[in-house]
Amino acid sequence: MSDRAVLLELLAADDALLGPFTPGAHVDLHIGPGVVRQYSLVDVERSAGSYVICVQREPAGRGGSIAVHDSIREGDTVQISLPRDTFGMVEPAGRVVLLAAGVGVTPLVSMAAHLHRSGADFEFHAYARSAPALPLRRHLESAPYRDQLVVHDSSLGDSFRSFAPTGLTQPEEGGAVYACGPEGFVTLARDRALEAGWRPEQFRSERFTPASPTPSGDSSPFTAIAASTGERMAVTPDESIADVLERHGYDTYRSCGQGYCGSCVTRVISGVPDHRDDTQSAEEHSTNSHINVCCSRSLTPVLELDI
Q1: Domain range holding 40?
Q2: Superkingdom, according to UniProt (predicted)?
């Protein structure tokens, strides 16, 4: 591993085989009461029917990673969600560029493994503050796709901010760019990709934090309706849709609570959402077909949800 990351192999408590997952998928790990964190599933050597996640210790984070490092031990029983994929890989018809910073390598490792098995043309660039700090470094160095991998050591001056990989500057029809890491890294990757001529829909990303603070727009009260029961629920200015739904017994599957992980995205049946998330694209927002219930609100007095 790296100097501050650990791998956890998860097996079913009843010895059943855990199901398959798609490249880029994640699970929610229930660490403690009210503490749920999202971790990508990593395609590395593992027992049949198990899942592997990588958790990097973040002293300045919200406490979830510290709890994992300090409290979870071999043999402990933990609760996880079924795999979900909000960073899904589209089967490419051209070259794929994978860009990762730090622990952002975790979903891209699974993508690289999938691309290698399918014989796709791809390159994988992993950036870290130093070689020992790169999570999964030992696995990457021995991976079957290691010839497509370039590890960039920022301590030696090889940073993404200083130099962009050549593949990113050469857009290709049918290809794609996938980026994962801190906000600054993802934003710069997107800017460079679009400047080089990649189309917006060819760039896909996953962030660890919101791109910007949640907009402080109109927070007027409105009514949320659960389509499955017809129940009408008042959403006040000081609470989220997710707060209200969960209080009334509906599962929302929220993880980050800030609109960047996509776990709580819910289909809208009627009404117009007030989108305040970083998960959906501008095009997706314009359809008003889905809403992040953890942070977004409603522009109409009533919002009916497929829940």
Answers
A1: 5-80
A2: Bacteria
Which tokens belong to 297? Answer: 């609100």
> Which two three-digit tokens encode residue 44?
């590395």
If you search the block for the tokens 């998330």, which residue do you land on? 277
CB–CB of 94/175 below 8 Å? yes
The b-or-e profile of 12-32 (16+ CB within 10 A means b, else e) is: eeeeeebeebebbbbbbbebe
Of 159, 158, 169, 163, nearest to 192 by C-alpha is: 169
Q: Do 198 and 234 fall into the same domain? A: no
| 149 plus 191 within the same structural domain | yes
Question: What confidence tens digit (pLDDT) does each residue in 220-276 have?
Answer: 999 999 999 999 999 999 999 999 999 999 988 776 677 766 778 899 999 999 999
In a domain, 86, yes or no: no
Query: Based on the domain organization, do 70 and 27 belong to the same domain?
Result: yes
pLDDT, tens digit, 9 for 90 and up, residues 3-20: 577 888 999 989 899 999
For residue 129, being part of any structural domain is answered with yes
